[in-house]
User: Which sequence fits this backbone?
């Protein structure tokens, strides 16, 4: 299922390696992306300056997720990620917790895109290295 994210509100907690990779993917699909983290690097600041996302430069609060449609919990604090999971489940919000694959309503796919064609790859949560290798092959085919 390819959900139209254009008007969906996406909230990403954390702005580290994993969050940034996923933000780069998500920006292809949504105009409503908020990133919450106490420290944010230059790449994300310049995306904010271009009007492509909103940054809240602080630790996340559970209220931050109440109005979200889709949440990525990508802090390096497992307790916070788990609290985000509990909050989202109670509110019926789709959530992906990058530190615990048991706490993913959806796995984050590797993405290959060319023009209007989008290919999303998952190895069913069992082999991210294989997903990555296949994404690279499919990018070269596309
Ligand atoms: C299950 C899943 C859940 C989810 O988070 O959604 C998950 C979980 C975990 N990944 C971990 C580690 C890494 N993952 C990557 C990369 C990718 N991981 C992605 C997806 C997923 N990762 C979900 C579905 C996976 C599937 O389909 O099977 C991709 C496809 C999409 C994306 O993240 O953008 C992207 C490749 C595509 C691309 O790069 O374009 C790298 C970097 C690399 O490989 O270079 C490392 C660094 C470590 C290394 O180098 O090994 C760990 C830590 C434990 C460990 O080390 O195993 C967990 C936690 C756990 O397994 O419990
Ligand atoms: N699913 C995946 O593909 C992978 C998952 N992991 C897991 O993901 C976690 C994050 O990994 P990285 O991105 O490499 O970590 P990182 O250290 O690069 O980034 C962590 C981010 O979380 C932010 N943060 C910390 N506390 C916060 C809070 N209370 N509120 C908001 N933001 C907060 C930090 O400011 C930073 O931006 C790891 O701890 C590990 O458990 C690690 C490798 C791959």
Assistant:
């Amino acid at each position: 299922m390819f959900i139209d994210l254009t008007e969906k509100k996406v909230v990403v907690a954390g702005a580290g390696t994993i969050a940034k990779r996923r933000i780069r993917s998500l920006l292809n699909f949504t105009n409503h992306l908020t990133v919450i983290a106490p420290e944010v690097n230059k790449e994300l600041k310049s995306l904010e300056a271009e009007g492509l996302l909103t940054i809240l430069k602080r630790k996340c609060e559970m209220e931050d997720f109440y109005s979200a449609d889709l949440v990525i919990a990508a802090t390096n604090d497992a307790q916070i990620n788990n609290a985000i999971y509990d909050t989202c489940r109670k509110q019926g919000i789709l959530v992906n917790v990058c530190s615990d694959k048991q706490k993913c309503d959806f796995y984050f796919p590797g993405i290959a895109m060319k023009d209007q064609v989008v290919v999303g790859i998952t190895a069913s949560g069992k082999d991210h290295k294989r997903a990555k290798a296949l994404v690279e092959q499919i990018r070269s085919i596309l």
